[in-house]
Specification:
- The protein is 43% helix and 18% strand.
- The protein has seven helices and nine strands; from the N terminus they run H-E-E-E-E-H-E-H-E-H-E-H-E-E-H-H.
- The protein has a seven-stranded antiparallel β-sheet, sandwiched between helices. A two-stranded antiparallel ribbon has the order 6-7.
- Strand 1 and strand 2 form a beta hairpin.
Length: 215
């Protein structure tokens, strides 16, 4: 593989980071970057810790393999559908972290309780309906539920975060996890929860796009 060396190196380094950060276990999850009309994506069933640039697969938006000797992630359709609909998205990360997985089997949506979540994720994080993995139904459901936000929890499955930098999608995954952890622990206390009001939620989100988000 000779194309997009810089992007493949960046993706390989990001794969090692999400493994080190415990956002993924074993070979589960997937990671991609879009370059023009092509997708560089992690292969199916391969360790993130051992990933090299040559292990990555380059496909087009229809899923045809352009470069690479491995099989692309079984969730390539989900990545493709998000890229087709979200022209602002260059990178997609799908993980199976602990608290997002708990939310995926217990919640229908998760409110943003803290400022960083409200700014980066919006007022709440939606949860998709369950669809079988690797199917077009799952791809379409994920696209519809994520909408214009940059995170969605997949029912009985995991988490998807999107953005325009590796740092953004990894940070979003950590913030989703922190927000859900706080929500679960607060519910356990049974003392009521102080929510951010709608007006302040909107102001925080607007402030993020105007002052914090870096392309």
């Amino acid at each position: 593989m000779k194309s997009f060396l810089d992007e493949r190196l960046e993706l390989t380094n990001a794969c090692k980071k999400i493994a080190n950060d415990n956002l993924v276990k074993g070979t589960w999850g997937n990671f991609s970057i879009k370059v023009k009309d092509k997708i560089i994506i992690t292969p199916s069933g391969y360790s993130y810790e051992l990933m090299t640039p040559n292990d990555l697969v380059i496909i087009n938006l229809e899923g045809n393999i352009l470069e690479g000797d491995r099989v692309p992630s079984s969730e390539w359709m989900m990545h493709s559908e998000i890229y087709k609909k979200r022209k602002d998205v260059d990178i997609i990360l799908h993980t199976h972290p602990k608290y997002s997985s708990i939310a995926s089997v217990t919640m229908d949506e998760i409110p943003s309780l803290i400022e960083d979540s409200a700014m980066i994720l919006g007022p709440y994080i939606k949860v998709t309906d369950y669809k079988l993995p690797g199917t077009r139904d799952l791809a379409v459901e994920t696209v519809n539920k994520i909408g214009d936000n940059n995170a969605v929890v997949m029912r009985n499955h995991g988490l998807v975060t999107v953005g325009n930098s590796f740092n953004e999608v990894i940070s979003a995954a950590h913030i989703v996890e922190k927000n859900i952890m706080i929500y679960i622990e607060a519910l356990k206390l049974g003392k009521g929860i102080h929510y951010i009001n709608d007006e302040d939620l909107k102001m925080l989100r607007d402030k993020y796009f105007k002052s914090y988000r870096q392309k």
